[in-house]
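Lecture 7 notes: from sequence to structure.

We start with a single chain of 92 residues. Read the sequence below before looking at the structure.
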Amino acid sequence: MTQQVALDIIREGLFTVILVAMPPLVIGLLAGLVMSIFQTVTSIQEPTLAFIPKILAVLLSLVLFGPWMITHLLQFFSNLAGNFNSFFHSPF
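Now the structure, written as tokens:
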């Protein structure tokens, strides 16, 4: 395995992780932003109030985007496993 091949695998893996993690993180961020605005408008300063909507938003995003996330991860791993023999050259 050359350094370029290893860097390509790492780059593709990091891109896959970022792409798969993005929907729950963005939806959790938006839910937190909405709850912060709500707390500011109503002058309710309870720090635990924002946790439940954020948790529910992230769980909902996992339900909605879960099949797409699993498909994308399985595609990455199948490409990795399918090319596994080409990564290593036999010394014989």
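The first helix runs from residue 3 to 42. Keep this in mind for problem set 3.
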